[in-house]
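Onboarding guide, step 5: your first structure request.
Type a short instruction followed by the sequence, for example:

Predict the 3D structure of this protein.
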Amino acid sequence: MVKQTFPSVISDNDITILVGNGACDLTQLSKSPKGKVIAVDGGLRHVLKAGLTPNAVIGDMDSIELSDLQAAGRNVAIYKSDDQDTTDFEKALLALEAPLCLAYGFLGLRIDHMLACLSVLARFTDRHKVILVGADDLVYVTKGPFSMHLSAGARLSLWPITPVKFAASSGLVWPVDGLTLAPDGQVATSNQMKEDWLSVTPDKKSEGVYAICCAPEFLPQMITAAAKT
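The system replies with structure tokens like these:
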């Protein structure tokens, strides 16, 4: 194994796959797009079970099994940090330079870990484009305008991570035009697509961060949409 101290930068010009230690659909992970695979601490177990080859392991190594590290092979880079002021997910993002990340194993099991991921993504919207991929949901955290193809009738939720005012929207059964959404106020869960094209535009004065949530079947469309934000 190639051991290096944190921080280091892993660069990729394509999609990077991050794998965490939360709930993970192994069939879904095994079919992930090709790209560098980064195991985030104990997420290495999911990587190996899905039959993927990790390029690196990042984290404080408090939930990883030695047997998994041995099984990963001699050429896997290990990026270890004992910093307890950052989560393993944040450590991984700090070490990466990639146009888009798909993050498996970060939704489900522990809600505190999931909320921590959303907090990190809210602070990283200007630096990283990350889609959280789960068995039941896709989550993309962003700010500013967003648009993507879906299917009429599909569920679509807009969740405000910070207060955000929307100037305009289209494609939704229940438009959010003129609404200010906030985590301690009005939210927009369980909305639905009226048409096959979603477009939401925050007010120009709004710097709010929000999450787009939809079914995992729309991953190709969300990848295309995220790449344009």
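Each response can be followed by summary notes, for example: The chain has a mean pLDDT of 92.
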